[in-house]
Amino acid sequence: MANTAGHPESPHGAPDGTRRDFMFLATGAGLAVGAGALAWPFVASMAPDAETIAAGAPLEVDLTPIQEGQIVNVFWRGKLIFVRNRTEKEVKEASEVKLADLIDPQADSARVKQGHAKWLVVYGNCTHLGCVPIGHQGQYEGWSCPCHGSLYDTSGRVRRGPAPSNLPIPPYVFESDSKIRIGEEGGKAVA
Amino acid sequence: MKTTRLLPASLLAAVMSVSAAHAEDEHGAPHPPREKWSFAGIFGRFDQAQLQRGFQVYKEVCSSCHSMSLVRFRNLAEAGGPGFSAGQVKELAAQYKVKEQNDAGEDVDRPARAADAFPSPFPNEKAAAAANGGKAPPDFSVLAKARTYERGFPLFVIDAMPFVGYSEQGVDYIHALLNGYEDPPAGKEIPTGTYYNKYYAGHLIAMPKPISDGQVTYAKNDKGEPVVPETTEQYSHDVAAFMAWAAEPHMMARKALGLRVILFLLVLSGLLYYVKKKIWAKVGGEVHGLQPELHKTY
Amino acid sequence: MSAHGNTYVPKSALAKWFESRLPLIGLVHSSFVSFPVPRNLNYFWTFGAILIAMLVSQIVTGIWLAMHYDPSAANAFNSVEHIMRDVNYGWLLRYMHANGASMFFVAVYVHIFRALYYGSYKAPREVLYILGVIIYLLMMATAFLGYTLPWGQMSFWGATVITSILGAIPVVGETIQSLLWGGYSVGSPTLNRFFSLHYLLPFMITGVVVLHVWALHVTGQNNPAGIPIKSGKDAVAFTPYATVKDVFASVVFFAFFAYWIFYQPNYLGHADNYVPANPAVTPAHIVPEWYFLPFYAILRAVPDKLGGVILMFSAVLILALAPWLDTSRVRSCNYRPIYRQFFWLFLVVCVLLGWLGAKPPEGGYVIAARICTAYYFLHFLLVMPLVGLFETPKALPGSILETVTGPGKQVSGSGMPIGAAAAPSSKG
């Protein structure tokens, strides 16, 4: 660098033109990389912070106080979850529906944990635009959404639009017959 | 040109030297001695074992009066800290109870989780004050940054500079305070509920000597020998280091990133200097009228 | 001087369509590309660009911090610690913002003293200069409001002391005070409105900066010789010449800035501000941030409350009168052998006032502060007018080109980096 400073240069292309071009390019690239790197912390700071992540640790729910037929609301990571203790009739209705009749075909057995068929655990926001459907209402006695009239059955499956899909199932495990842990799957807390 | 500046410069030097000789601050407390800290300086790093010992001292001694409400149990397992495992943290947290509201709206105790803050020894500030002679013991969370001492001109300028700089006055003070209990000078009245401390501003501190030699038993090494001495000197170093981490849990990440950022900026400014030189070299040609188009508009 | 026209010629049809409806690209082109820059500018002239970079940095980091900050007395302190501990890179954003304020003032003081040394306030740049003083005032207000936001002891007591200053105003003082407080003392409503105003003022600064740059582009830049551009040979085009120099200087400045962020992030603040605000206990030393210290020293130099307040505000406002107090026809101190000495004395007095502002107001410190305060005002009221009348300035060069190449010579550009040749004039 020092020797080029005093180097005579012709106006029509310097003897060290290639090196100069390379240095100009390197500088431009350096500025671009610097700007990109500077943007990173700003973007990263908008992601959930450590406190929010820690507060989203798995949540234990005691099932004993939930009566048959009752729906209980719980919140995990700020999201509403319905825990429904289904009656035998409701379980029967849900499992006897023909898959071909469904908008989003899924067997009831795939929506509950094996051996715990009476417990339905689903996210509580309509898959249309996120309103909270009202329990035990509508033609299928599952849920009925007050916003745009979507209907769900006792398995939380959509039976009438505009909602496009079934109420999703959050990750959870049965710790015992009367206790579930939401936010855990396969023995590990979900990320 | 030299003489132009000589007068103002000597004036500046003369006035500032007045304060340079002060070894004591305005409260008559001597400056805490400067200690060696593994985390000082540009390449400073926390000593994991020391942070673990410091946590032990805090837990077994200090935490009976001092809260640390901004530190969460999970922080103990985070990078750049004492390096406990997630399992250890979970176990540790479970030893504490925290209040939680149940479905009936009542406050009930539940075991603490990793996400919880260190529980405070008193339910609230008023209770803490009432139990400690009217003044609540300060919270430890950022205390290492909240305490300092003034070194005066010109040392304060040197303290800001790279490589010779220093910003560990807070931990120096904490270490000095814990070792600063001594008999009051003859004739000095010590009001009830206060104790004489050499380094405390005004010397009369409400906290009795909190820690003595042998009070905390550290884990031994494989051969059953002590790793560090179990003395007040060692305890105060360890707990001060732990408090430095608690006050600035991302310090190691900060210093590591800083090195990369500053080196990058220095290389980039070197490149830019070259580019600037090359571009301005053309102006030399312009004087000969070789690039008349440059100014055709003026 | 301002003869430079709009040289931007749109090439594409779309650009032509747009330019005939809103000549925005042409405006940018004439201001930042073809704008003629005196070729003898030294590196002190890069601080304008550095200041713009700092303003952008402060606004951006501030907006991001506001995403996590809670402006209530109960939560403010903890929300700042939440940013420091839990938010990804939150510590970086906060330290950038806190130290950025100091760096902003470092740059603005270099900028101001450069203007004072080279006579940049003199005709025809009076409006340009006064807009600068207004920016400085707005910066001070913004910095003060911002320092209250962490709601530590210095925040609380700084707010209390400074708002009490306003109580000194006769008749309306107490009303203004309670309107600022939103209560009977500094409290949560005060913090909340200070946050709102702290968010507002930077955009007002941006507005005045636009006017400042506009005024600059009407009169053109001053330069170390203090003489106008007389021909094209005195100037270079803003881009690439000034642009590359400004970018280089800004990157160097940011390296300096980064040192504070990463290695001395709390040096320029006060340890007491890590103690949560406590209305029952005042810290042992109430000291403002370093950039306010000279004015704080002036405030305390006067034993009278109202008198001190008047003097402190006068100290800032008197800056705006410099264009009319300075009677010299010559701008640059390079050609003013006598006034130049007074300039350096003034600079030293300002530094001394800053140092005295951090000292307890007792004994010799008060006497020294009074002497320095007296000189501060005499410099403007006596030295500037009188020296201008009696001083014999050195002969001015014939042209800017001459200051770069030497008088009457057409020195070849070869073998000599012309950019660096402007350096001798920077030695003052």
Automatic annotation (TrEMBL), chain C:
The organism of origin for this protein: Methylobacterium goesingense
Transmembrane segments: 43-67, 101-121, 127-149, 156-176, 196-217, 238-262, 306-325, 337-358, 364-390
Keyword Glycosyltransferase: no
Coiled-coil zones: none
Segments forming domain Cytochrome b/b6 C-terminal region profile: 228-398
Membrane topology: Multi-pass membrane protein
Gene3D superfamilies attached to this UniProt entry: Cytochrome Bc1 Complex, Chain C (1.20.810.10)
Name this polypeptide is given: Cytochrome b
Localization, UniProt: Membrane
Co-factor binding comment: Binds 2 heme groups non-covalently.
Cofactor(s), names only, from the UniProt record: heme b
Main subcellular location of this protein, as a coarse class: membrane
Keywords: Electron transport, Heme, Iron, Membrane, Metal-binding, Respiratory chain, Transmembrane, Transmembrane helix, Transport
